[in-house]
Amino acid sequence: MSIVSRLNALLDATTAPLSVYAHCDLPCGVYDPAQARIEAQSVKATMEKYNASSDPDFKVRATIIKEERCELVKHHLWVLWTDYFKVEHLKQFPNLHDLFWMATKSAGDAKKTNDVVVADRLLSEIDAIAEIFWATKK
Amino acid sequence: MSIVSRLNALLDATTAPLSVYAHCDLPCGVYDPAQARIEAQSVKATMEKYNASSDPDFKVRATIIKEERCELVKHHLWVLWTDYFKVEHLKQFPNLHDLFWMATKSAGDAKKTNDVVVADRLLSEIDAIAEIFWATKK
Amino acid sequence: MSIVSRLNALLDATTAPLSVYAHCDLPCGVYDPAQARIEAQSVKATMEKYNASSDPDFKVRATIIKEERCELVKHHLWVLWTDYFKVEHLKQFPNLHDLFWMATKSAGDAKKTNDVVVADRLLSEIDAIAEIFWATKK
Amino acid sequence: MSIVSRLNALLDATTAPLSVYAHCDLPCGVYDPAQARIEAQSVKATMEKYNASSDPDFKVRATIIKEERCELVKHHLWVLWTDYFKVEHLKQFPNLHDLFWMATKSAGDAKKTNDVVVADRLLSEIDAIAEIFWATKK
Amino acid sequence: MSIVSRLNALLDATTAPLSVYAHCDLPCGVYDPAQARIEAQSVKATMEKYNASSDPDFKVRATIIKEERCELVKHHLWVLWTDYFKVEHLKQFPNLHDLFWMATKSAGDAKKTNDVVVADRLLSEIDAIAEIFWATKK
Amino acid sequence: MSIVSRLNALLDATTAPLSVYAHCDLPCGVYDPAQARIEAQSVKATMEKYNASSDPDFKVRATIIKEERCELVKHHLWVLWTDYFKVEHLKQFPNLHDLFWMATKSAGDAKKTNDVVVADRLLSEIDAIAEIFWATKK
Fold first, then answer.
1. What local confidence, expressed as pLDDT, does residue A4 receive?
2. pLDDT at D28 over 80
3. Each residue of D101-128: b (16+ CB within 10 Å) or e?
4. How far is CA F83 from each of CA A15, A43, A107, A121, rounded to the nearest angstrom?
5. Which among D65, D97, E125, F83 could disulfide-bond with E103, CB atoms 3.0 to 4.6 Å apart, if both were Cys?
């Protein structure tokens, strides 16, 4: 996409209300990888706060919250994988299954550690999924 | 912000992975009005699919799903109102309380109807909240 | 209301089954601030038990449970604010928004501490809301 | 209890903040049958609104909501039965098990009908449980 | 049951797909004590992993997860007690109420300890319930 | 496995308490495809009851419940796919991803119909997964 068309697309996106997408299994046709990414950002921020703290109660709370947020990442990714993607997408992107499998495994791994490297890996896996997602929407 | 810096910011946002924000009440500091908007988009799409269908079972499913999605809109907005916004924001945006109150009431109204006018009102109320939100992040 | 009519009202309330109110967003017209207060009582009791214990596992459990109970307080208050209260109530009680905002923020604060002062503040904020609620029911 | 002591108790209850109780399985020691009763009131009100309506979508929503509220009644009663009541209570109130079994079955029955007779039966079963509960708190 | 008929039954069970049962309160007529047992197995395994670990974060996670799994055990048992069992079953198995009461109390106790004796007691109580359950299905 | 060892294994399984497996993402190492199958059985039974009924309220309830049970099937399958299965299993069973993808899609399809053919397809897909699962446990 040229710079000009990227600029046009971006300006359209800013004059219009933010254009975002989700799911509902009706299906309503609304999906957006942003749902998984938002929770994954939260997972990473929680790890950082955990690492910066020396308060044991705070660390317990960070662990509780990280557990929940990782689960939400997994849920949003699973929904996208099963509900949005179709056989024709798989043909075009044959690594689709592996991408989702590894990303949801990373979300599980992020429960077990406060190493932000794991959160960063999760975020980049979600970004790879998002790239495919948006490619299929064109 | 000048047009040039807006363009720069937008281009940064596209070369970087999508930059989105959420919450976790740790607090992790990650919030994003997109969470409410995604569900509200789903509410609107569900209404449209309801209106276009003559299958009673499908209409029941649409009603079940709309009920859930409206509740999620309310939840995401409530979290943003209570957890993200601070006293200094309220001073700067004195209509903040009313905006959230009306938007969450619209999400409740959207449970009771399939009139997309209500979903559109909800979406524009969320956009008004998002505008304030992003203004406070600068 | 005179003492006599208060007594009559109270005796009516005891000869009748306990008269309590809730919500369901139908709306069914049943609401009761007691739902938030019960969970807030639980938050306070959990803090007290945490403070009296020296067992680290028990303290972790207390933290997990307090996290959930605070969330329930917030939920019940949010529902009351959005679903029960109407524009005419706001005119009569112009501090309504601030009361709910501060009370739900206190419920969030109670996640972050085991200082019962915070739980007591939360309880008194809920009582202030309950007073307004019951005034509107007359 | 004499009328005088009933009045004294009632006046105490009104000068003090509303005294209510819940659970958390810590155990925090806070329980209250009001939680089940509030939801059962909502079940009854939902049935009444269902019966008064001729709007099929409203009836679907009433059915969805009643399903949820009945489940909440069951949950609150189960918690009370398992977590609050002890062997010594059972000795004093040997019909305790049957009372809870029948009440939770009534909550299940209330899912299957809009006959308010079932909701009234459920409410009176909860009142019988509440009477025993408060007797054990003396 | 003779060894031969036990073998026949077992071979039937293996040539057919695994025959399992659940609930849905429609009622759909599908129930299975395995749902409670699976979660109870998880409770026991979590205790064992907790006891074998010296990592404080892992122990926090084990505590969070055990809390959830114990709650699921309680839920599955409560559903079975209220929804599946009927008055005629109670006549045939008069200790039914006590069995469920003690088993759900054990599930609550298992939240408060990492002593596998409690998990083993819970498992054997679930097995006693399962035996009655399968006797009523004949 | 020889007939004799199968018999021995089966007899061991019956003298021991029922041996079942679940998950908890600790990971506790307890998993069992029975969790998905139980809910799928419920989906099928709900369809059958829907088809046999002419009561519109009952049909609404069946639709609500089927929606929930299908979601539970999906959840249990997703957990198994992401948490239990490892890279070495995928090598041995290269159709693993497709099996889970199709099965979770079938669970989504079962929300949209009362045709038991879809429930039967879902059940046989779960059985195929279970066969692989148990093969990996040997």
1. 40
2. yes
3. bbbbbbbbbbbbebebebbebbbebbbb
4. 43, 18, 10, 17
5. E125
Query: What integer pLDDT is reported at residue D3 of this predicted model?
Result: 38
With beta carbons less than 8 A apart as the criterion, state whether D76 and D125 touch. Answer: no
Report the alpha-carbon distance of residue B104 to residue C79 in Å, rounded.
9
CA angle, residues D12, D15, D16, in degrees to nearest 5? 80
Q: Read off the pLDDT of residues B84-128 as tens digits, 9 standing for 90 and up.
A: 999 999 999 999 999 999 999 999 999 999 999 999 999 999 999
How many beta carbons lie within 10 A of that of residue E93, not counting itself? 18
CB D67 to CB F57 under 8 A? Answer: no
Q: Which of D40, D63, D37 is closest to D50 using CA atoms?
A: D63
Residue type, F20: V
E20 pLDDT higher than 80? no
Would you say B76 and B25 are in contact if contact means Cβ atoms under 8 Å apart? no
For residue A27, whether the previous peptide bond is cis, meaning omega lies within 30 degrees of 0, is yes
Helix axes D34-52, D116-137, angle to 10 degrees: 170
The residue among A108 and D1 whose pLDDT is bigger is A108
| Partner-chain contact D25 E104, CB within 8 Å | no
B29 — pLDDT class (breaks 50, 70, 90): confident
Q: How far is B36 from chain A (nearest CA, A)?
A: 10
Angstrom distances, CA of residue C54 to CA of D23, E56, E108: 22, 16, 21
Preceding omega of E56 cis (within 30 degrees of 0) = no
Q: How distant is the Cα of B67 from the closest Cα of chain F, in angstroms?
A: 12
* Cα angle for residues B35, B37, B43 (degrees, 5° grid): 115
Q: What is the pLDDT of residue E78?
A: 98
**Integer CA distances (angstroms), E24 to A19, B25, D75, E45, F40, in order:** 38, 34, 15, 28, 11
- The per-residue pLDDT for E22 is 54
pLDDT level of residue A22 (50, 70, 90 thresholds): low
Give the single-character DSSP code of B33.
T
pLDDT score of C133: 97
What mean pLDDT do residues E93-105 have? Answer: 98
Determine the Cα–Cα distance for residues F13 and F34; give it in Å rounded to an integer: 16
Residue A3: both structure tokens together: 């710079």
Collect all residues with Cβ–Cβ distance below 8 Å to A55 and sequence separation of at least 6: none
- pTM for the complete prediction? 0.85
Taking the CA atoms of A4, A6, A10 and A15 in sequence, report the sign of the dihedral they define.
Answer: positive
For residue E15, pLDDT over 50 is answered with no
Q: Which two tokens stand for residue B22?
A: 């959420």
Specify the DSSP class assigned to residue E83. I
The answer to whether the CB atoms of D38 and C32 lie below 8 A apart is yes
pLDDT surpassing 80 at residue E38: yes
User: Which residues of C15-121 form beta strands (DSSP E)?
Assistant: none
Q: H helices of E16-80, where?
A: 34-52, 56-79
Q: Is the dihedral of CA B95, B96, B101, B107 positive or negative?
A: positive
Tell me which residue in C83, C98, C101 faces B82 most closely, judged by beta carbons. C101
Identity of residue C95: N
Q: Which residue has the tokens 């254009």?
A: A19
- pLDDT more than 70, % of chain B: 83
Chain A nearest CA to E60, separation (Å): 7
F38/E35 touch (CB, cutoff 8 Å), yes or no: yes
Is F13 or C29 the better-scoring residue by pLDDT?
Answer: C29
User: With touching defined as 3+ CB pairs under 8 A, do chains E and B touch?
Assistant: no
pLDDT digits (tens, 9 = 90+) for F56-100: 999 999 999 999 999 999 999 999 999 999 999 999 999 999 999
Residue bearing tokens 């009313």: B98
The mean pLDDT of chain D is: 86
Contact B128, B99 (CB under 8 A): yes
Give the rounded distance of the alpha carbon of E93 from its chain centre: 18
